[in-house]
Amino acid sequence: MQVLDTEARIRKQIAENPVILYMKGTPAAPECGFSRATVGALNKIGKPFAFVNVLAAPHIREKLPKLFQWPTFPQLFVNGELIGGCDIVLEMEADGSLQALLEKATAQA
Ligand SMILES: N[C@@H](CCC(=O)N[C@@H](CS)C(=O)NCC(=O)O)C(=O)O
Fold it and tell me: Residue limits of the Glutaredoxin domain (predicted)?
Protein backbone atom coordinates (compact mmCIF):
# COMPACT_ATOMS: atom_id res chain seq x y z
CA MET A 1 0.00 0.00 0.00
CA GLN A 2 2.75 2.41 0.96
CA VAL A 3 4.58 1.67 -2.30
CA LEU A 4 1.56 2.62 -4.44
CA ASP A 5 0.94 5.76 -2.38
CA THR A 6 4.54 6.85 -2.78
CA GLU A 7 4.54 6.29 -6.54
CA ALA A 8 1.30 8.26 -6.91
CA ARG A 9 2.76 11.07 -4.82
CA ILE A 10 5.88 11.26 -6.96
CA ARG A 11 3.94 11.21 -10.22
CA LYS A 12 1.68 14.00 -8.93
CA GLN A 13 4.66 16.14 -7.90
CA ILE A 14 6.28 15.69 -11.31
CA ALA A 15 3.03 16.37 -13.17
CA GLU A 16 2.22 19.50 -11.17
CA ASN A 17 5.63 21.16 -11.28
CA PRO A 18 7.22 22.02 -14.64
CA VAL A 19 10.64 22.11 -12.99
CA ILE A 20 11.25 19.98 -9.90
CA LEU A 21 14.48 18.93 -8.22
CA TYR A 22 14.70 15.89 -5.95
CA MET A 23 17.66 16.70 -3.78
CA LYS A 24 19.32 16.22 -0.42
CA GLY A 25 18.49 19.16 1.82
CA THR A 26 16.84 22.34 0.59
CA PRO A 27 17.96 24.96 -1.96
CA ALA A 28 18.80 27.27 0.97
CA ALA A 29 20.66 24.53 2.84
CA PRO A 30 21.79 21.67 0.57
CA GLU A 31 23.10 18.64 2.46
CA CYS A 32 25.26 17.17 -0.28
CA GLY A 33 27.80 18.71 -2.67
CA PHE A 34 26.03 17.30 -5.75
CA SER A 35 22.74 18.86 -4.69
CA ARG A 36 24.51 22.12 -3.85
CA ALA A 37 26.15 22.32 -7.27
CA THR A 38 22.87 21.55 -9.03
CA VAL A 39 20.99 24.22 -7.09
CA GLY A 40 23.81 26.63 -7.94
CA ALA A 41 23.35 25.96 -11.67
CA LEU A 42 19.57 26.40 -11.41
CA ASN A 43 19.92 29.60 -9.40
CA LYS A 44 22.29 31.03 -12.01
CA ILE A 45 19.53 30.62 -14.58
CA GLY A 46 17.12 32.20 -12.10
CA LYS A 47 13.90 30.44 -13.10
CA PRO A 48 11.61 29.14 -10.35
CA PHE A 49 11.79 25.47 -9.44
CA ALA A 50 10.10 23.19 -6.96
CA PHE A 51 12.06 20.78 -4.82
CA VAL A 52 11.66 17.71 -2.64
CA ASN A 53 14.15 17.02 0.14
CA VAL A 54 14.58 13.26 -0.10
CA LEU A 55 16.37 13.17 3.27
CA ALA A 56 13.04 14.20 4.81
CA ALA A 57 11.08 11.79 2.57
CA PRO A 58 12.66 8.33 2.90
CA HIS A 59 9.90 6.56 0.92
CA ILE A 60 10.51 8.86 -2.04
CA ARG A 61 14.26 8.40 -1.70
CA GLU A 62 13.75 4.66 -1.96
CA LYS A 63 11.09 4.64 -4.69
CA LEU A 64 12.17 7.33 -7.17
CA PRO A 65 15.42 5.65 -8.32
CA LYS A 66 13.44 2.50 -9.22
CA LEU A 67 10.69 4.38 -11.05
CA PHE A 68 13.03 6.22 -13.41
CA GLN A 69 16.08 3.90 -13.34
CA TRP A 70 18.33 6.66 -11.98
CA PRO A 71 20.18 5.52 -8.86
CA THR A 72 21.33 8.77 -7.26
CA PHE A 73 20.29 12.27 -6.18
CA PRO A 74 19.87 14.99 -7.23
CA GLN A 75 17.36 14.28 -10.01
CA LEU A 76 15.98 17.09 -12.14
CA PHE A 77 12.64 16.71 -13.93
CA VAL A 78 11.39 19.19 -16.52
CA ASN A 79 7.89 18.89 -17.94
CA GLY A 80 7.55 15.38 -16.57
CA GLU A 81 10.82 14.13 -18.05
CA LEU A 82 13.91 13.11 -16.11
CA ILE A 83 16.78 15.32 -17.33
CA GLY A 84 19.47 13.80 -15.09
CA GLY A 85 21.63 14.48 -12.09
CA CYS A 86 24.39 16.89 -11.17
CA ASP A 87 26.84 15.99 -13.97
CA ILE A 88 24.24 16.42 -16.70
CA VAL A 89 22.84 19.64 -15.24
CA LEU A 90 26.32 21.18 -15.01
CA GLU A 91 27.12 20.13 -18.59
CA MET A 92 23.85 21.63 -19.79
CA GLU A 93 24.52 24.81 -17.87
CA ALA A 94 27.94 25.11 -19.50
CA ASP A 95 26.65 24.63 -23.06
CA GLY A 96 23.60 26.86 -22.63
CA SER A 97 21.02 24.12 -23.08
CA LEU A 98 19.82 24.29 -19.46
CA GLN A 99 18.88 27.93 -19.85
CA ALA A 100 17.00 27.21 -23.08
CA LEU A 101 15.18 24.25 -21.53
CA LEU A 102 14.14 26.11 -18.39
CA GLU A 103 13.08 29.24 -20.24
CA LYS A 104 10.83 27.12 -22.44
CA ALA A 105 9.44 25.10 -19.53
CA THR A 106 8.67 28.08 -17.32
CA ALA A 107 7.21 30.10 -20.22
CA GLN A 108 4.69 27.31 -20.82
CA ALA A 109 3.77 27.08 -17.14
N1 LIG B 1 27.29 11.63 -10.64
C2 LIG B 1 26.09 11.84 -9.85
C3 LIG B 1 26.46 12.14 -8.44
C4 LIG B 1 25.30 12.02 -7.46
C5 LIG B 1 25.59 11.00 -6.38
O6 LIG B 1 26.58 10.24 -6.46
N7 LIG B 1 24.72 10.99 -5.35
C8 LIG B 1 24.84 10.02 -4.28
C9 LIG B 1 25.42 10.69 -3.04
S10 LIG B 1 24.60 12.20 -2.60
C11 LIG B 1 23.47 9.42 -3.98
O12 LIG B 1 22.44 10.04 -4.22
N13 LIG B 1 23.43 8.17 -3.48
C14 LIG B 1 22.16 7.46 -3.26
C15 LIG B 1 21.45 7.90 -2.01
O16 LIG B 1 22.06 8.52 -1.15
O17 LIG B 1 20.24 7.61 -1.90
C18 LIG B 1 25.28 12.99 -10.48
O19 LIG B 1 25.65 13.43 -11.55
O20 LIG B 1 24.28 13.42 -9.91
Answer: 19-83
